[in-house]
Design a protein that fits this description.
- The protein is of the alpha/beta class.
- The chain folds into two domains: 116 residues, Response regulator (Rossmann fold, 3-Layer(aba) Sandwich); 94 residues, LytTr DNA-binding domain (OB fold (Dihydrolipoamide Acetyltransferase, E2P)).
- The chain contains six helices and 15 strands.
């Protein structure tokens, strides 16, 4: 199991810093702290595994608003709250968070929530690199292109080429990968623009063929 990359969206500075230290001490990796929903949406590259979100953020966007965005991007998340308001908790439940952490949070509650997240993360892909077999996080793959008996895995950190057929790798990928062409699989979390003929992912234009166009109806 790889070291999960977690972000925190919490408007109370000291609470966020305390939570960050605790998460890191539990063997996870906090790669970003945001103090409002607006800050998060303006700056995220969606290259994290899971999020911990305060339901009652003080700016215009609430934690519920952010939860909807996280759900759209298929990112597991935990709600952090000091409020037991029944109406808010009912709304939160519809977003299907992994868990809840009550403020003031206890280390055991945070650890339990993170373990649930860890067990829901996609399985790492094994790829052959310069140093032998390496692990690749599917969340880091933007798209995959087939080129004969090779596949190009275009990731946030560069391209990895493997001697493998596209059909061999499809079964190893989580359900946020979508086939849009006989030669292309895309990670739907990176789609920035779409039309009936092409998609834009992180600046890359990916063709959409007529035979796979129906797959886009799930987005």
């Amino acid at each position: 199991m790889h070291k999960a990359r977690v972000i925190i969206i919490e408007d109370e500075f000291f609470a966020a810093e305390h939570l960050k230290d605790l998460i890191n001490s539990l063997g996870f990796w906090v790669i970003g702290v945001y103090h409002s929903g607006e800050d998060f949406l303006s700056n995220t590259a969606w290259n994290f595994d899971a999020a911990i979100v305060d339901i009652f953020l003080s700016a215009k966007l609430s934690g519920l608003d952010i939860g909807k965005k996280l759900k759209e991007h298929k990112k597991p998340f935990v709600f952090l709250t000091a409020n037991q308001d029944a109406k808010t908790l009912r709304e939160a439940a519809h977003l299907q968070p992994v868990s809840y952490i009550t403020k003031p949070f206890k280390p055991n509650d945070v650890a339990a929530a993170l373990e649930i997240i860890a067990h829901r993360l996609p399985k790492m892909l094994e790829v052959r690199g310069a140093n032998g077999i390496e692990k690749l996080n599917p969340n880091d793959i933007i798209f995959i292109k087939s080129d004969g008996v090779y596949v190009e895995l275009h990731t946030v950190n560069g391209m990895v080429v493997q001697r493998k057929l596209l059909k061999e790798i499809i079964g190893q990928l989580p359900d946020f990968f979508l086939r849009v062409h006989r030669s292309y699989l895309v990670n739907i979390n990176f789609i920035e623009q779409r039309s009936s003929s092409h998609l834009i992912l992180k600046g890359h234009e990916i063709p959409v063929s007529r035979s796979f166009r129906e797959n886009l109806t799930i987005l």
